[in-house]
Amino acid sequence: MNGLRTRHLRRYAPALGGLIALAIPLAQRAAAATTAVGCTSPGAGLQLLISAAMLMLTSLLQLWVTTLLIELNHHQPLMRWCAPRADRRLLMVLIGVGVIALALLSDIVLWAVLFRSLELLPTLEASFYFSGITFTSVGYGDVMLPPCWRLLSVGLAVNGLLMAGWSTALLVHLVQSSMAMRIQNHDKP
Fold this sequence. Notes:
Elements: H1 2-32, H2 44-73, H3 76-82, H4 86-117, H5 124-135, H6 151-187
Helix pairs in contact: 1-2, 2-4, 2-6, 4-5, 4-6
């Protein structure tokens, strides 16, 4: 199991590092475009580029979680342990839900850190709150980005919709696998 995680980390780490290396200069350039007096528009292209970089970063995180859960779901010793008992199958699904929830929460935190590092919101708490309500498409409207940065809100909302759909599909797969284990175990003599 440990070798599996290490192999996947080694595979995705360069891509993740490259995206972070791309995002830092973008964030610095964008932060320089915002003045203390007002809001100078960083431009639609730069905001869309930042949104695309964040989408790639969160997609890599989601891909890593997906790969991890699928590999665990096909790990034969673990499946032999889970298959005969309903409580064990339930535990595997609940662990999957927890890992998926942590990945989505990590996505929200990444966006919050971006907003705070660009000084678009006054506190990390406000950044986390805005990221959470926009990522989940609740969008109360009580906290908003400066008008010249509002395209990042669109990028965040699209990111949230995609990650929610991806996570739902992964969760459905885990539940179906649990049900298949039950059927296969029930059919055995």
